[in-house]
Design brief:
The protein is of the alpha/beta class. About 30% of the residues lie in helices and about 30% in strands. It has one domain: 3-Layer(aba) Sandwich (Rossmann fold), CATH 3.40.50. About 45% of the residues are buried.
């Protein structure tokens, strides 16, 4: 499952709050998230399923990262498969994996020369140390915070010792849920997410945050990490 910062943004103004603390609702399970995206897979693909609909700086960042990967790459949470296809066009030995079978079916039909399969992020079904890069582009945002370390450890297991991880996420001053259009999501402080990434066996090499001009209440972040 793949979220994107360009459209399908949250309609609400932010999480419900009581005093100074957000009200943390029950976290969505994989089944809930998968069903929510399956119900909107064709709509999502029509709106966001092409690289031309993406932000040019994101295209440049992902392309530059892919050029430095020396070996197989996983697009983890590939959604309708457009980033996976871009990576393949750039010469990467890439496969896309996603929780949502409807996305995998759409991606396979649209980009038949690229392999796609259904998988959970905490079980990528790849041998230890077998990939050079993992792209997790807004694919961690629906995970319950306590599951994020498990997924990061799975990423580290799959990465070669010289592999890299590139993450796109929603950024905020504190960890908090928000009412994403499809289903509840989380935004993360850079330092807190970086700590989890490092605890999983990575070294954070670079982070960047930037606002969304169309949604001043939504900030975005990117994180590049190398296996250690």
């Amino acid at each position: 499952m793949r979220c994107c910062p360009v459209a399908l943004e949250p309609r609400g103004s932010g999480p419900a709050e009581t005093g100074d603390h957000p009200v943390v609702r029950a976290a969505a399970t994989d089944e809930v998230v998968g069903a929510a995206y399956a119900a909107r897979a064709e709509e999502y693909t029509a709106a966001l399923g092409s690289v031309s609909a993406m932000n040019p700086p994101d295209i440049q960042l992902i392309s530059a990262w892919a050029a430095r990967c020396r070996g197989p790459v996983i697009d983890a949470g590939c959604g309708p498969g457009h980033w996976t296809q871009l990576l393949a066009d750039l010469g990467a030995d890439v496969e896309g994996v996603d929780l949502v079978p409807a996305f995998v079916d759409l991606a396979t039909a649209r980009f038949p020369t690229v392999p796609y399969r259904v998988a959970n992020l905490d079980d990528l079904a790849r041998p230890d140390g077998s990939v050079a890069g993992i792209l997790a582009w807004y694919s961690l945002i629906h995970l319950e915070p306590e599951r994020v370390p498990l997924v990061l450890r799975e990423f580290r297991r799959c990465l070669a010792d010289d592999g890299t991880l590139l993450v796109g996420f929603y950024e905020s001053d504190r960890l908090e849920p928000f009412p994403h259009t499809v289903t509840e999501a989380y935004s993360w402080p850079v330092d807190e997410l970086s700590r989890l990434v490092e605890d999983a066996g990575f070294g954070v090499r670079h982070t960047r945050t930037h606002p969304n001009p169309k949604r001043p209440d939504r900030r975005h972040g990117t994180l590049l990490a190398g296996a250690t």
